[in-house]
Amino acid sequence: MTHRRTTQVTSPAGGLPPVPDSRAAAVQRLVIDWYRDSARPLPWRDPAASAWSILVCEVMSQQTPVVRVLPRWREWIERWPTPADLAAAPSADVLIAWDSLGYPRRALRLQETAAAIADRHGNQVPDDEDALRALPGVGAYTAAAVASFAHGRWAVVLDVNIRRVLGRVFAGVEHRPASLTAAEKRWARALVPPREHVEWNAGAMELGALVCTARNPDCAQCPLLDACEWVAAGRPSDPAVVRRGQAWVGTDRQLRGAIMRVLRTAHAEGAAAVRTHLLTAATSTLSADDAEALSALPSRLRTAIGAVRDLDADGSRTARLVDDLIRDGLAARDGRGVRLPQTASPTMEH
Fold first, then answer.
1. How far is residue 140 from each of residues 21, 151, 185, measured CA to CA in Å?
2. What angle do CA 341, 109, 328 make, to 5 degrees?
3. Contact of 146 with 51, CB cutoff 8 Å
4. Over the range 263-278, which residues count as b (16 or more CB within 10 Å of their CB) and which as e?
5. Which residues contact 33 (CB under 8 A, 6 or more apart)?
6. pTM of the predicted protein model
7. How many other C-beta atoms can be found within 10 angstroms of the C-beta atom of residue 130?
8. How far is CA 27 from CA 80, 175, 206, 211, in A?
9. Cβ atoms of residues 127 and 155 within 8 Å
10. What's the pLDDT score for residue 245?
11. Dihedral of the CA atoms 152, 155, 158, 164 (nearest 10)?
């Protein structure tokens, strides 16, 4: 008697049904063929792209659209083509080059990662997931992505795009829960083909980014239209998964970003440090000396300072967030005021 083998049996409570091998193989083929025909010609996908450039891309791309990553990535790789180059850079330069990609602490963590690669691995990005995860700031997703895309290793790459594609096609659900469970990892692991696994990982990710998007998916143009359980079920919404957009306007995150913009602008304009009082005091409370000092600053810097004041009229949040930025290693204070850090992060390994 013959039995049809399935790739994985999971708990029904997890909403992850078993997938027959034949169905998994058919979906894999469709995704891989679509990717070969439709993938964007991104520079980190070039066969000549270094493993380091791919690691930089993966860190920059976290919660950041590709269109914003591209110019920053090009500048970084031209300026710091190896981990050792970035490790030796002043932290102020690293933060300025990071610009507005978001969560600037990631820039300093990437510099720490670069130092660890230079020190522990002879300036070469390791190809083993365990070795990658041992690097500072490298989590499970980044380790798997670098192992797969930079080194061609078999790996289970699971970002939000891939999880969405797998959930819709095989489980018939619109969105996956925010938390990735061990059961979902095992389920997704069984869906990665033994061959063409790099193309599968990249293709599923690209499909989720361009076609099977979180909002307004273009199902009519999807190569998996006829294979998708979610479409077959009428594209039902999942009331158990509540999607909330991240608040931004008026938040501490917005104000932190505005303060960092002041510090980057001051550094670029040669002003270096900004007197904390100029950031935290309302214009009406400035002394004559402070007002004169403010008027003498470059216009770009005055505009950036004004944006901070507009977000925090009494300066109380600004003072607190400046202290937070200093604790995070993103700013420093000296006798002249607040500035970008001038040296590598205190946790940098050399």
1. 26, 16, 11
2. 50
3. yes
4. bbbbbeeebebbbbbb
5. 223
6. 0.85
7. 9
8. 39, 19, 15, 15
9. no
10. 56
11. 80
205/158 Cα distance (integer angstroms): 8
Domain boundaries, the chain: 252-339
In one-letter notation, the amino acid at residue 223 is P
Instruction: Retrieve residue 319's tokens.
Output: 């003072």
Candidates 58, 129, 199, 206; catalytic one: 58
Cβ-Cβ contacts under 8 Å for 331 (sequence gap 6 or more): 259, 260, 263, 322, 325, 338, 339, 340, 341
Residue type, 236: P
If you search the block for the tokens 């935290």, which residue do you land on? 280
CA angle 36, 8, 143 (to 5 degrees): 55
The ranges of the chain with pLDDT < 70 are 1-15, 239-246, 282-284, 343-350
Roughly how many angstroms between the first and final C-alpha of the chain, as a whole number?
63
Give the torsion sign (CA, 58, 64, 65, 68): negative
Instruction: Report d(CA 42, CA 312) in Å as an integer.
Output: 40
Provide the 8-state DSSP code for 181: P
Instruction: Kindly write down the DSSP assignment for every residue of 21-73, as one continuous string.
Output: HHHHHHHHHHHHHHHHHH----GGGSTT--HHHHHHHHHHTTTS-HHHHHHHH
Catalytic annotation present for 58: yes
Distance CA 19, CA 83 (A): 41
Q: Are the CB atoms for 136 and 112 separated by under 8 Å?
A: yes
Neighbours of 216 (CB within 10 A): 6
82: number of Cβ within 10 Å = 18
Backbone angles phi, psi at 20, to 5 degrees: -60, 145
Pair 273, 332: CB distance under 8 Å: no
